[in-house]
Design brief:
Elements: E1 5-9, H1 16-30, E2 38-42, H2 48-55, E3 60-64, H3 81-85, E4 91-94, H4 97-101, H5 107-119, E5 123-128, H6 132-136, H7 140-152, H8 157-161, E6 164-167, H9 181-198, H10 201-206, E7 208-212, H11 217-224, E8 231-234, H12 241-248
Parallel strand pairs: 1-2, 1-8, 2-3, 3-4, 4-5, 5-6, 6-7, 7-8
Bound molecules: 2-phosphoglycolic acid.
The site of 2-phosphoglycolic acid (PGA) has 13 residues, from strand 8.
Amino acid sequence: MRKRIIAGNWKMNMDHIEGSSLASLILEGIGEKELPCEVVVIPPFTTLPAVAEVFAGSKVDTGAQDLWYEDAGAFTGEISGSMISRLGCRYVLVGHSERRHILGEGSGILALKLRAALRAGLTPIYCVGEAAEERESGNAEDVVEKQVREVLEGLGPEEISRTVVAYEPVWAIGTGKTATPEDASGMHSFIRGLIAGIFDKEAAGRILILYGGSVKPGNASELLGCGDIDGALVGGASLDAGQFLGIIFS
Ligand code: PGA
């Protein structure tokens, strides 16, 4: 049985003061309750140390939203995987659609970033997903296949066993539109099939594939009830402790 992850991507929201308050509210809301899944909070870089401190020793993990692909050196403005892991973080997003579409990151750089994350001992959450036009023209699977192959092919068995995939259809991110559970789980099993083809059945059976795109307390349990959906990457709803907790305990 695969574990389940609920990850909250705060994007460019919550400075370190607001972020520690939100982290404390999440911890209070969890209280003594047993977590039904792994919970990961992914704040902006400057908020990360404060949030990591609030969650230190708790059951909640932290992650970063991006990393650079070299381990150190003259890369003004960039942050390395080891800087992130030394804060106690376990996860890092790679290839979020906002980085692909606003910052123009493509497979070449994302393949390097994913490997840098693994080198630093982090678990990369590799985001894939098609845009609205690509779905409308019937190309969603081709687009996702290319994103998966170009970045994950060539990883060793140990590396793929430490990698998480998040399927986030671009048209569902921050729009209030969610993929139907049928469409989402169809794409999740397609991705799992790709992993089986590129690697093997064991890797496919083990890899966690999260769904992202307007996940809310009201739609979480239906989506998470689908066999191939192993958790959620939550944007907007993770900025509200009540809603985030609603998804965690859905
Ligand atoms: P959303 O964002 O939940 O606000 O749609 C998801 C994401 O971008 O990871």
